[in-house]
Design goal:
Blueprint: E1 4-5, E2 11-17, E3 20-26, H1 32-50, H2 58-64, E4 69-71, H3 74-89, H4 99-104, E5 135-137, E6 142-144, H5 154-173, E7 177-181, E8 184-188, E9 196-199, E10 214-217, E11 220-226, E12 231-234, E13 237-240, E14 243-244, E15 249-250, E16 255-262, H6 265-278, H7 282-289, E17 293-297, E18 302-305, E19 313-315
Parallel strand pairs: 10-19
Antiparallel strand pairs: 1-9, 2-3, 3-7, 4-6, 5-6, 7-8, 8-11, 9-10, 11-16, 12-13, 14-15, 16-17, 17-18
Helix pairs in contact: 1-5, 3-5, 5-6, 6-7
Length: about 325
């Protein structure tokens, strides 16, 4: 996820989190401390709830209990429902049951802890068991995963946190707020004059250049999914973190990055991740969503869909992803 804010702001906080970088911008400098407190609280909560890498996280407990019923917390239930909705709207292209496939590929620890050149052989790929096999009762929050099924909610949990943090910080401060978590970006409250200027890049950590591609966002959310930023090597292969649930392998490289605008960061990230997985089918699928999108091919060719503006232009949120229904 590689979208990032590039415009000057009255106040900014930047810090590492969740294996990536958090960027917080507010239109009122006096509100920065309050907004940052809100953001850090949301980050701590999602880490304790949804981390695959913490032995004390709720997700670790749920995965260890696969095959048996368990009652989950309200926050876990919210994250799970977002993940299941993403799976339903994408017909399984974004599927939370890819946890074991991710581990098999070697993504079994935080990204910064991965071995740079792992020579161990790759085990056979493990297709995802499939989200439809999950039994979940939202009212009682009772969950039963199929045996040997591990959840990974990375495609939606971080985006949900960006949405929650932006909304809560704006409500607490009464000013405009932008939250970017490794490129999963949500805004709330009144935007600055001219909108929030957002630079687009393959990697959110790249230096900002004056000649780079940028848009100005006045509301909603943006998310960028790509295959260049989070890569690692194992058994002589270069692997990336977006897994095709149908195969258990990294999605075939068709698009270098896909950026989507939507009403929420969860919807934007769901659509951008699905597009990477769908590959050649992504253009037609994105057109059906009616969400503005910008796709960059492996050789730099750019496809703009559903009213995505020309470079260095202004956009606002797309429609909810529920248009797919």
């Amino acid at each position: 996820m590689t979208t990032r804010a590039s415009s000057p702001s009255p106040a900014e906080a930047v810090f590492p989190t969740l294996g990536t970088t958090a960027v917080l911008l507010v239109t009122n400098p006096d509100a920065l401390a309050t907004a940052e407190s809100v953001l850090r609280a949301e980050l701590a909560a999602v880490d304790l709830t949804c981390s695959r890498f913490r032995p004390d996280s709720e997700l670790t407990r749920v995965n260890a209990n696969a095959g048996n019923p368990t009652t989950v917390s309200e926050r876990f239930a919210e994250a799970l429902q977002a993940a299941l909705r993403a799976a339903r709207l994408t017909d399984g292209a974004v599927d939370p049951t890819v946890g074991r496939a991710m581990t098999t590929l070697g993504y079994d620890r935080t990204f910064t802890s991965l071995r740079p050149g792992d020579t161990r052989p790759l085990p056979p790929a493990l297709p995802a068991p499939g989200w439809r096999r999950i039994v979940f009762a939202p009212r009682s929050r009772r969950l039963r995963l199929p045996r040997h099924t591990h959840l990974d909610m990375g495609a939606t949990a971080k985006a949900l946190t960006a949405d929650r943090a932006a909304d809560r910080a704006a409500a607490a401060t009464g000013c405009g707020v932008l939250v970017s978590l490794g490129g999963d970006l949500a805004v709330a409250g009144p935007a600055p004059d001219g909108g929030w200027r957002i630079a687009l890049a393959d990697d959110h950590a790249q230096p900002i250049t004056s000649c780079g591609t940028a848009v100005a966002v006045t509301g909603g959310a943006l998310a960028t999914s790509g295959i260049r930023a989070r890569t690692w090597h194992r058994a002589g292969r270069t692997l990336h973190h977006i897994v095709d649930p149908a195969t258990g392998e990294p999605a075939a490289p068709v698009w270098r990055t896909v950026t989507v605008a939507a009403a929420t960061c969860v919807d934007a990230n769901t659509a951008s991740t699905a597009a990477i997985v769908l590959g050649d089918r992504a253009v037609d699928w994105l057109r059906r969503t009616a969400l503005p999108a910008r796709l960059v091919g492996l050789h730099g060719n750019v496809v703009r869909l559903c009213g995505w503006p020309s470079d260095s232009a202004t956009t606002s949120a797309g429609a909810p992803l529920g248009n797919l229904r």
